[in-house]
Every structure is written in structure tokens, then in C-alpha cells.
Amino acid sequence: MSSILKGGALMNNYKIVVGVDVSKNSFTATVLYDNKKETFEVKSDPVEFEMKIKPFLKKFKQSDMLIIMDHTGGVKIMLCLNKIIRRNNNG
User: Which of 10, 11, 66 is nearest to 36 (CA)?
Assistant: First the structure.
């Protein structure tokens, strides 16, 4: 992630980068956009996570996003993100 924070090539290809860490009791997300960094943590609840992440994702097209997460336990979050992104891109 340091190359992203330092303006590396990866960040230059996307307008928003979202990193999600899923643990048993919580979801932690760091959102990088417009030279800003915001981090938040919510209890392990996809609905609450959607409420927190939606304002960031609404601003960008799907092709402008990079979402990074570990492969363990991320199914609920990926479904939540997919639903938000599809809604935003369909009107």
C-alpha cells in the first residue's frame, strides 16, 4: 500500500482505492481518493458497512475503482460492494 499512498502507478490508474480487512467482529476499510485517506471500522454487519462505504462509491464509476481485500471471510462484503456498484452504474 505504500506505493499507492506515495502516488505510485497503481493509484494513478484509479480514482478511488478501497482496502477492506474482514475480521470476526468487524470490518475495517481504508478509502483513498482525491489525495485523501479515510479509515473506518464497523461491526461485522454488511448493512452498516454499506451505509459507511456508499457515499464514497457513489462518486465514482466502477472502472475508476480498485477494491482490495483478503480472501477470507470477504464474501459478505464483496456482495455488498457489488450491489452498491451495480446500483450506481445503472442509474
Answer: 11
Question: In the beta sheet, which residues pair with residue 28?
Answer: 21, 41
**Do 84 and 46 touch, CB atoms closer than 8 A?**
no
Model-level pTM? 0.67
Helix axes 46-57, 75-89, angle to 10 degrees: 40
Q: Give the Cα separation of 57 and 51 in Å (integer).
A: 11
For 2-89, CATH number? 3.30.420.260
Cβ-contact 5, 32 below 8 angstroms: yes
List of residues 6+ apart from 90 with CB closer than 8 A: none
The confidence band for 2, taking pLDDT boundaries of 50, 70 and 90, is very low
Residue holding cell 475508476? 64
Is residue 58 predicted with pLDDT exceeding 60? yes
